[in-house]
Amino acid sequence: MIAEFGAFAAALALALSLAQGLLGLTGHNKTARAAAAAAVAQAAALALALAFACLIAVFVQSDFTVAAVAANSHSDKPLIYKIAGAWGNHEGSMLLWCLVSASFGAVLASTRGAQSLGLWSRAVGVQGLVSAAALIYTLFLSNPFARLDPAPMQGAGLNPLLQDPALAAHPPLLYLGYVGMSVPFSLALAALLEGKADQAWARALRPWTLIAWTCLTLGIGLGSYWAYYELGWGGWWFWDPVENASFMPWLVAAALVHSAIVTERRGSLASWTILLAIMGFGLALLGTFLVRSGVLTSVHAFAVDPRRGIAVLVLLACALGAGFGLYAWRAPKLGQPGGYAAMSRESMLVWNNFGLAVAAGVVLIGTIYPLLVEAAGGGLISVGPPFFNMTVAPLLGALFLLLPLGPMMTWRIGDLRTALVQLAPAIVLALATLAGALALAEGRAAPAIGLALGAWLIAGGAIYLWRRAGRGGGFPLTKMAALPLAVWSMSLAHVGAGVLTLGAVAETAFRTETAMSLSPGDSVAFSGRRVSLLEVGEVEGPNYSATRANFRVDDASGARTVSAERRYYPTSPAPTSEVGILSGLDGDIYIALAEPVREGGGAWGVRLYHNPLVHLIFIGVLMMALGGMLSLIALARKRGSPA
Amino acid sequence: MSFAAFLLAAAAPAALDQPGQEARAQALDLEIRCVQCQNEPIAQSTADMAADMRVLVRERIAAGDSDAEIRAFFRERYGDFVLFRPPFDARTWALWAAPLLLAGGGLASVLASRRRRSAETGEIEPEQGER
To answer: B99, A391: Cβ pair inside 8 Å?
Structure first.
C-alpha cells in the first residue's frame, strides 16, 4: 500500500512539474500565471518528498514485495544502511534526482529577489520541465515502486563495499551537485529566452553554482576518501571514468562560480557564463549517463540496461539541443558592456575560466575516446592516469601559477608589477620549496614543481588576507576578524587548493609500499618504523564475519596498535578489506590484510604503505568546501541587506 | 620452487633488490591494466591474474628490459587494452592532439574577444581601476 501511495505521489509530481513548466514558460508577462507556476513548484516538491518518504518506509520495513528493496536490501542490515539503501541503487537514486530537482525548483520559485518577472517565471518553467523529464524517465524506465511476484523471503543485500557511512552520504551529495547544475541551466535558458542577462540575473545564478560546486567538492572528496580507506590499495584518485564523470561538472562549476562574479560585478562575460551553465548541466547529465548506462567498464556501473542508457542520451540531446540552439539564436543579442585591460581582475578570471574549461574538455575527450574508438570498430583501448596526468596536471599547474595574482588585481585595470612586489615573500617561499623538493626528489622535476605551486598558493592566499586586513591603516592581525566573509571564503578556497596540491603531489611522488607475508609474532622494518603482527583472530559483525589482524607499529614517538580486517558477507562472494590506518603529522601508515598464505603455517599476506601528507588532500578538500559554504553565507547576508 | 613458495610469490611478488628497479616496477604496475578486472591497474587489483602480471613486470625488469620494451611486451601479449597510456597511432592521434587543439582554440577565442573589446572601449587608464 505504501509503495502504491509513493508511486501515486510521484505520478502526481510529474503532472505538477509539467504544469509548472507550461505556466512558468507562458507566465513571463502575466503576474498571476507566474505566481501559479511558483505555487505549483512547491506542490511538486511536496509530492516528491512524500514519494521519497514512502520509498524510505518500504526499505525500513524490508518490504521484499518491492523489487528495488528485494534486490538491494536485507532484513539483517543495520537500520542506517536500510535507509541509505533507498538511494544506494539505480531506481531509488533516480527518485532522489527528481526530489532534488523539484526541491531546487521550489526554492527558485520562492526567491525571486531583484529578478525581472520574465526571467524568474521562465527559469521556474524550465526547471519544471527538467523535473518532469527526470520523472518520466524514473516512472517509466526505472520505477522504484515496482512490485515483485512472487516476493522472495529475503533480500539480496546491498553491495558490502557500499555499507559504509561515507558511501551513504556520497551519492546524495553528488546528486545535490549534479542537480544543482540544473538551476543555472534553467536560469541560462530563461536569460536566452528573455534576451537579457543582467547583473540581477547573475546575482540569482551565483548561489546555485556555489551550492552545486560545494556539494560536488564534498561528494567527490568523500568518494575519494572512501576509495582510500575501503578499496585497500592506498590510492585516492584513479581517473576512473566515473570519477571523471563527477570531475568534469566540478571543473565547469568552478569556472562558473568565477565567471558569474564578473557578470554580477561588471556585467561582462554574460554570454560565456550562459554557455558554461549549459555545458555544466550537459556534463552533469553525461555523468549520469556514463554511470547509469553501464557503457563503461567500472565498478560504478551497477545498472546495466541499454534502454536506460539510450533514454538518458535522449534527455542529454534534448537539454543540449535546446541549450545550444537557443544560445546560437539569442546570444548575439546579449550586450557585452564593461571593458577591461589585459591586466585586470576580469582578465585573470578569464584565464581561470580558460584553464578550467580546457581541463574539463580534455577530461571529457579522454573519458569518451575509448568508447568512440570501440564504436568506430577500432577495438579496445584504455585511456588512464598517464594520459590525464600528462595533460590535465600541466593545465592546472599553469592555472595555479596565475591564481595568486588574480585577487591582487583591481577591477578594470590592474598593475602586475605592484602585485608581484606584494607577493614577493610567496615567490621566495615557492622558489625555496622548489630547490628543497628538487633535492628531496632526486632531481625529478614534476613533483618539485607541484610542491612549489602548493606553497605558492598557500603563501599567496595568506598575503592577500594580510594586505586586505591592512588596507586603511592599523595593524593587520587585529583587523583580520573584521574582514568581509567573502574575502575569507575566497582565501580559504584558494589556500585549500594549495593544501590539496601539496598532499596530492607528496602522496603520489613519495609514497612507499611493500608486500610480504607475516606470521603472528613476526615484525618487519618499514619506512623508519617497526611493524609487528601481534595476532590474527575471528570476529562477528552485525551481518558479516571477519578475520581481524592486530598490528603494533613502533616509531620514535612510541608504540601504537592498529587492526586490519577481511570481512565476509554471506550475501557477497568476495571478501572486503578494512584497512588499518595510523595517522601521524607526516602522513599515514596504511596496512591492508590480504589472503592467508596457503600451507604457510598461519602466515598472512600483508601490504604496507606509507602515504606521506595524504591527510592534506582531504583537509584541502574540506577547506575548499568550507570556502564555498562561507561564500554562500556571504551572499545570503548581502541579499538580506538592502545594498 | 615449492608449491607454497610459488603461491607466496603470486600474492606478493619478490621485490627487486635494486631500489631504482623496484620503483620502476611499481610505476609500471600503475600503468598496466589488469585484464581480468574492471578498470583497475595491476598495482591495485587483488586478482590472481594481476599478481601474475606484477611478477611478469619484475621478471622483465630483472632481465634488463627498458620501460618501453616492457610496455611493448604487454601490448603484444594482451593488446592495446592493457596499456593505460594509449600508444600514439592512427587511432589515437586525435586523442593526443585534442589537448593542444582545445588549448589553442581557447587561446584564440580569448585573444579575439579581447581585440574586439579593446576596439569598442578604447584605452583604459590606470586610474580607472576599481577595488
So the answer is: yes
Among B44, B80, B129, beta carbon nearest to A411: B129
Taking residues A18-32, report their average pLDDT: 93
**Distance, in angstroms, between B65 CA and closest chain A CA?**
20
Q: What's the per-residue H, E or C state across A546-580?
A: EEEEEEEEEECCEEEEEEEEEEECCCCCCCEEECE
Cα A249 to Cα A255: distance, rounded to the nearest angstrom: 10
Q: Where does residue A527 fall: left (phi above 0), alpha (psi -120 to 50 degrees), or beta otherwise?
A: left
- In angstroms, rounded to a whole number, what is the distance separating the alpha carbons of residues A32 and A113? 17
pTM over 0.90: yes
Q: Which of residues 38-97 of B touch A (CB under 8 A)?
A: 38-39, 41, 43-44, 46, 79-86, 91-92, 94-95
Closest CA to A567 of A542, A546, A593: A546
Amino acid A190 reads A
A380, A514, A517 member nearest B80 (Cβ):
A380
**Grid coordinates 571478501 are at which residue?**
A575
E runs forming strands in A483-629: 512-518, 523-526, 529-540, 545-555, 558-568, 576-578, 580-584, 587-596, 604-612
Nearest residue, CB atoms, A373 vs list B8, B91, B102: B91
CB A485 within 8 A of CB A491: no
For residue A424, give every residue at least 6 positions away whose Cβ sits within 8 Å of its Cβ, in sequence order, or none: none
Helix, strand, coil shares of chain A as percentages rounded to 5? 65, 10, 25
- Across the range A56-75, mean pLDDT stands at 91
- Closest CA of chain B from A345, distance in Å: 9
Q: Which three cell numbers stand for residue A184?
A: 543555472
- pLDDT value at position A289? 74
- Count of A–B CB contacts within 8 Å? 147
- Maximum CA pair distance of chain A? 82
**Between the CA of residue A284 and those of A109, A326, B26, what are the distances in Å?**
22, 19, 34
Q: How far apart are CA B27 and CA B29, in angstroms?
A: 5
Question: In angstroms, rounded to a whole number, what is the distance separating the alpha carbons of residues A265 and B33?
Answer: 48
Reply yes or no: is the peptide bond before residue A150 cis, omega within 30 of 0.
Answer: yes
For A583-628, the pLDDT digits (tens) are 988 889 999 988 888 777 788 889 899 999 999 999 999 999 999 9
A546-580 pLDDT per residue, tens = 999 999 999 888 899 999 999 888 877 778 888 99
Residue B92 has its nearest CB partner, among A381, A384, A411, at A381
Q: Which residue has the higher pLDDT, A383 or A156?
A: A383
DSSP A147: B
Q: Give all strands (DSSP E) within A277-417, no chain letters.
A: none
Is the distance from CB of A110 to CB of A42 less than 8 angstroms? yes
One-letter identity of residue A34: A
Name, in order, each residue with C-beta under 8 angstroms of A83's C-beta and a sequence gap of 6 or more. Answer: A56, A59, A60
Q: What is the mean pLDDT of residues B12-29?
A: 76
- Chain A residue with CA closest to B125: the answer is A413
Which residue matches cell numbers 606478493? B12
- pLDDT confidence band for B13 (50 / 70 / 90): low
Give the orientation angle of helix A345-375 with respect to helix A385-402, to 10 degrees: 170
Cα separation, A477 vs B105, whole angstroms: 45
